[in-house]
Design brief:
The complex is a heterodimer of chains A (105) and B (149). Chain A has 105 residues and is mainly α. The chains are: A mainly alpha (105), B alpha/beta (149).
Chain lengths: 105, 149
């Protein structure tokens, strides 16, 4: 079975209300670049043992991942929320999904 | 029910989210829906600074995320309604969130939120929900004026 695309452009086109491929790609790029900061925030919270910070960061990033139709990343972020306080595996999965997204874009 | 999105034309909006991408995306949607000035704030602390400045007076529509570090969406909503910022307490406020817990939804409506919108949302759906919320608030305002006349 094929693994899902990191971002579902068809769904994103419907959400944003445009078929303009350049615009969609721009939105996706913007998401990926702003995601770098979110990943750092999650890693910082993990290093500091800040569980509440981790929950808020994962939740916030998940919201924007859902909004940009990045389902695999959104699912991994949801796993951080549900596995707290033991979220090391889920965070590693988010790091993998983010790398895949970054390479794909 | 009013859902003509041209009711949003010319409104000045504030978008608050701790994720910069979400601020950019939703701000873009609001501009395309006809809003005039759209301010963005990265989180509750940023939002509060803006709302307590002179710029706050011109804002008629606020789109808020719920979970943010420091100051969350419900706290900002309460501060607006209680007149603790320069934003008019009668401004239209929508929560745009991934949180669907009943406790939170009830708290938001107890604080007179005008719309509770779940992420993800399309531009069309957001426009329709905001238009309805603005129309309801204007209609409530004119009813109050009639009663006091």
């Amino acid at each position: 079975m094929n693994s899902p695309q990191p971002i579902d452009f068809g769904a994103l086109a419907e959400l944003i209300g445009t078929d303009d491929a350049n615009h969609l790609r721009e939105v996706a790029r913007l998401f990926v670049s702003s995601s770098a900061r979110m990943l750092v925030r999650i890693q910082e919270c993990q290093a500091a043992g800040d569980i509440e910070g981790l929950r808020i960061a994962a939740h916030g990033w998940k919201g924007s991942a859902v909004q940009v139709c990045a389902a695999p990343l959104a699912e991994a972020l949801a796993r951080i929320e549900t596995s707290l306080p033991q979220a090391a595996d889920a965070i590693a999965e988010v790091e993998r999904r983010y790398s895949a997204l970054n390479a794909w874009i | 029910m009013h859902d003509r999105q041209d009711i949003l034309t010319g409104m000045n909006a504030l978008v608050v989210d701790d994720v910069a991408f979400s601020v950019t995306l939703v701000s873009g949607m609001l501009r395309e829906l006809g809003c005039n000035e759209v301010h963005g704030a990265n989180g509750g602390v940023d939002a509060l600074k803006l709302m307590q400045s002179d710029q706050g007076r011109d804002i008629d529509l606020v789109v808020l995320d719920m979970n943010m570090p420091g100051i969350d969406g419900l706290t900002i909503l309460r501060m607006i309604r209680e007149g603790l910022t320069e934003v008019k307490p009668t401004a239209t406020v929508a929560l745009l969130t991934g949180v669907s817990e009943e406790r939170v939804v009830r708290a938001a409506f107890a604080l007179n939120v005008d719309a509770y919108v779940m992420k993800p949302v399309s531009k069309a759906a957001l426009g329709a929900r905001l238009a309805r919320a603005v129309a309801q608030r204007r209609s409530a305002g004119s009813d109050q004026l009639k009663r006091s006349a």
